[in-house]
Amino acid sequence: MNLDTINNKLASSKTFLVACFALFSALVVLVGLIFYAYQRDTIITGAKNNLSIMSDLKAHQISHWRQERISRAHLMTANLYLLNLIQQYNQQQNADLREKIIQAIEPGIGGDGDHSIFLINENNQLLLHIGAAHRCAERDYAAMIAQAQQAHEPLFGPIYSPSTNAEDSNEPSINRRHLHMDLVTPIYRNNDPEQQPLGAIISVIDPDKFLLPLMQLWPTKATSAESVLVRKMGDKITRLTPLRFISGGTMTAITPPSELETPGDYVTLGKVGLLAGYDYRSERIFAAITKIAKSNWFMISKIDRAEVLRPLAQLGALIAVTIVLIIGGVGMIMWLWWRRQQAISRALHYEQELQNRTIITRFDNLTKNSNDLIVLCNEDGVIIDANKQAIAAYGQPIEELRQKKLRAMCDMGDTECSLMWRQLEQHNETNFASMQFRQDGSTFPVEITASWIKVGERRLLQAIIRDVTERTEAAELLRHQAQHDPLTGLPNRTLITDRLQQAIFKGKRQHSQTALLFLDLDRFKNINDTLGHSAGDKVITTIAQRIHNSLRETDTVARFGGDEFMILVENINNIADIATLALKFIDVIRQPIDLGEQEVYITTSIGISIAPNDSDNTDQLIRFVETAMYRAKDMGRNNYQFYTSNMNAHTSERLALETSLRKALANNEFVVYYQPQIELSSGKIVGSEALVRWQHPQRGLVPPDDFIPIAEETGLITEIGMWILEQACRQNSQWQAAGFPELSIAVNLSARQFLDRNLQRDVWDILQRTNFPAKYLELEITESLSMFDVNSSIAIMDAFTAKGISIAIDDFGTGYSSLSHLHLFPINKLKIDRSFINQLSSDSNDLLVPTIIALAQQLKLKVIAEGVETEQQLNILRKLNCHLIQGYYFSKPLPAHDFTELLQNSIKLTCK
Ligand code: C2E
Ligand code: MG
Ligand code: MG
User: Fold this and answer.
1) Which run of H or E residues covers position 143?
2) Which residues pair with 609 in a beta bridge?
3) Which atom of ligand 1 is nearest to the CA of 782?
């Protein structure tokens, strides 16, 4: 990891931390606020409850106190005796009456220490007083009596401070030492409230005794708490007890702004309960309003909201401080932690850098001399280092490589890649082959051995990458070589067999036909034997080229064996096309082949089989096509044959023939026939041609065309040939010894014999063994045979002619030989092939026979026509001055015995 990456990571972790911190702070503040709000509600609820309890309690006590007072007042006013006394005293104020009244009233004053009792008449005049003196005129008792009468019960007046002199104002200030409260109990005649009051008993209550202490009593230390007793009369409210914060204001109505809700509003409506509102000072308060039972009195207990909430201010401050401390503390811890992380990361980086550098130095030392590409990666597969060979192979500088993963260099799918990783994790090492990308996008094949290595505390991936381009190419070359013929470059037997298999499958799917052609060059071995292998190679390559040029791109030609070619033609339309193609091959192959100093001619025999008609089995098809090719050979070569099912029988027959042929010589089954050769000028038999026959024990007489090719192919011809030569020479010796004219004997030499190194020696041996003069022996060689290698042919021929043996070119005109070479050969005779003689007729314009005869004459060679069957042919040949003739017209080939008879009869030709 480089420094930039670390810094980036740190920056993002910082942002994350800050965000976390902000979130944490917000949470703490929120919790603080919730806690504060909860506390506030608890305090307010507590305060309200206290207020409510306080108010209820006081109300209850006041009610009790009041009832007691009222009851006592009622007791007095219900005393008719007292009422009488008062009535009398009102009219006549004497001491006796006064004493009687006092005696009646005194028990009513009781022991609770009230100031005094007044008795006033209906004119508000003091009649008498018990206890302290009182200035009645100062107070409007008449109004109070009226109110009491209206209320049907004694009336408590507001608390007041009686003035000490007459100059005092109507609303004296409250003197705490002289506070009074009047209980005005009207006195009715006969205690009938419907009557006009006679006056009233005024009990001057000392509020300091009970009421004011009760009002001022507050169970907790509260600076703003106060209780006020008010009375509601109609829609008027009168304060009965003094206010705490306004002196002398007992009766003074201080009205807070009307929009603010006050306890007075509750009382006005006759409502009781808890209120959060404003008081007479326009201060925010919590108040409890309670109605005093059985009265129009209301108890208002209140306390300033500010006082109630005062502890909240402290709590708030405490919470705020706590929050600040928590946030500050956590912030500090986080900051310290982050600084530490920062330091650790950087330290780790530098440590890693150091380790990397050490690793790289070690790695460089270890890998610089390696032939392999060596790449070192971290645990994530990111390249850390690569040796020079890797840098060169990838074509990228190390800085660029270090930004890549090894995976990016491999041409691998995701599945292979994950498999590779799994193996690496399981076995600590893995081997795999892949293609590697170069900088330019090209690829090269490699084999990779990847393994985990421990470097210090770190686990690294080491990949040893072997460039296997050369090996792959070599393997490709080997594969190509294994499937191709080195001489022609054509596919070989293996490849075409493979392709044939595929073509058969394809044909099955597509319902199409595939043709297989098997070409075997006729007597190719002769070329190799006579002209040498390089000439043979040239012929093969030329023919390969010709076949290849005659084919479509989709067709395949393979060299199947020495002189064998296999051709695969897929998707054929009709069989006739294949026949045309086979003819085309026959034609292109028979064209002269230029070997530099000479031209050679070769023909081919072609076998054809069709898949799936003949078979859909590769091996079987190849067997069939070979059979068909042999059939074409048997049919005289230079032709094509389609495989037919009965060919198999022919093949097995041929096989049987070959087996019995090997035993034929030992079993003495060969017989030599002789066909006379007649000189046209004299009409005499001047010689004969030895023609072999096989007297097969089961098949009867087998003609040479049926077994000579097999003998040639199997090599048996050398032995058989020498046997024939010996028979022919011996027979002729016998005839000569028997006194027959000096006949010559022509013996056929096959190409294989002609090229046999021991031929000359064997011929001499036979001549000596049979005591037969060489000058009577004529060897017949075929035209094409002599042309394979002109120089060695000439040498062999020279050796024979030097001994006096004649050489005749057999089947002249069929071998496409170059006539220009003819004069070079030390030959004595040309033997015109019977196919030309066969065509001779009077109306024939064919110039071939006259040309051959003229040529022979020019070259001073004897010329013999073979296959003369008609007189017409004879006449033509005579006209053309042909020297010799041979054919059925005179005689078929005859066994020695018959030929002896022929000689004995000395049949003279009647050709003159
Ligand atoms: P070839 O050397 O050209 O022999 C001439 C062939 O023509 C003989 O056939 C002969 O019977 C046949 N023939 C002669 N006159 C007539 C005629 O008027 N009409 C017809 N239709 N045929 C005539 P054969 O004996 O069947 O031999 C065929 C070939 O077999 C020979 O052709 C020769 O190439 C080969 N052959 C025969 N005997 C030997 C042998 O001893 N050694 C070798 N190497 N080849 C032999
Ligand atoms: Mg012959
Ligand atoms: Mg012939």
Assistant:
1) helix 141-151
2) 516
3) 34
User: What phi and psi values does residue 471 have, to the nearest 5 degrees?
Assistant: -65, -40
| CB-CB contact of 299 with 57 (8 Å) | no
d(CA 596, CA 530): 16
What tokens were used for 346?
Answer: 């950087």
- Rounded to the nearest whole angstrom, what is the distance from the C-alpha of residue 813 to the centroid of ligand 3? 10
In the sheet that holds 383-386, the strands lie side by side as 383-386, 373-377, 458-467, 443-455, 429-437
- Find the helix or strand (DSSP H, E) in which 27 lies: helix 3-77
Indicate the SS3 state at residue 311: helix
Q: Whose CA is nearest to atom 3 of ligand 1?
A: 811
How crowded is residue 121: how many other Cβ atoms within 10 Å of its Cβ?
19
* Strand locations in 844-886 (E): 862-866, 884-886
Tokens of 105: 């009233």
- In short, whether 810's Cβ falls inside 6 Å of ligand 1 is yes
676 C-beta closer than 6 A to ligand 1: no
Residue 612 has a CB neighbour count (10 Å cut-off) of 15
Is residue 887 in contact with ligand 1, taking CB distance under 6 Å?
yes
Write down the pLDDT at residue 490.
Answer: 94
Spatial distance between the Cα atoms of 72 and 201, rounded to a whole number of angstroms: 11
Distance of CA 496 to the CA centre of its chain: 38
Atom of ligand 1 nearest to the CA of 750: 44
Cα(470) to centroid of ligand 1, in Å?
A: 61
**In whole angstroms, what is the distance from residue 811 CA to residue 708 CA?**
16
Cα angle 88, 89, 93 (rounded to 5 degrees) comes to: 130
- Contact by Cβ (8 Å): 691, 731: no
Residue 186 Cβ < 6 Å to ligand 1: no
Spatial contact of 80 and 118, defined as CB atoms under 8 Å apart: no
Beta strands (DSSP E) in 383-428 are 383-386
Q: Taking residues 145-151, what's their average pLDDT?
A: 84
Q: What does pLDDT average to over the chain?
A: 86
pLDDT, one tens digit per residue, over 652-690 is: 777 788 889 999 989 999 999 999 999 999 989 999 999
Which tokens hold the place of 704?
A: 């040479």
Ligand 2 centroid from CA 747, angstroms:
7
Question: Cα separation of 905 and 209, whole Å?
Answer: 203
For ligand 1, is residue 813 a contact (CB within 6 Å)? Answer: no
> How far apart, in whole angstroms, are the C-alpha atoms of residue 416 and residue 139?
116
Residue of 190, 195, 185, 104 lying closest to 145 (CA atoms): 185
Task: Give the pLDDT of residue 617.
Answer: 94
Measured from the alpha carbon of residue 833, the closest ligand is 3
Instruction: State which amino acid sits at residue 100.
Output: K
Alpha-carbon distance 54 to 249, whole Å? Answer: 23
* Composition of the chain by helix, strand, coil, percent to 5: 50, 25, 30
User: Looking at residues 501-525, what average pLDDT do you find?
Assistant: 92
**Is residue 166 predicted with pLDDT exceeding 80?**
no
Question: What is the rounded (10 degree) CA torsion for 889, 894, 900, 904?
Answer: -20
Burial of 739 (0-12, 13-18, 19+ CB in 10 A): exposed
Structure tokens at 811: 């089947």
Distance CA 718, CA 711 (A): 8
Interval between CA 809 and ligand 2 midpoint (Å): 9
The closest of 301, 325, 308 to 39, measured between CA atoms, is: 308
Residue written as token pair 């792959």: 472
711 lines ligand 1 (CB under 6 A): no
DSSP state, residue 196: P
Rounded to the nearest angstrom, the distance between the alpha carbon of 752 and the centre of ligand 3 is: 17
Could you tell me the CA-to-CA distances from 359 to 2, 424, 514, 556, 814 in Å, in that order?
16, 21, 65, 58, 86
For the chain, what is the radius of gyration of the CA atoms?
Answer: 76
Q: Is 491 in the pocket of ligand 1 (CB under 6 A)?
A: no
Check the CA dihedral 200-204-209-211 and report its sign: positive
Judged by DSSP in three states, 424 sits in helix
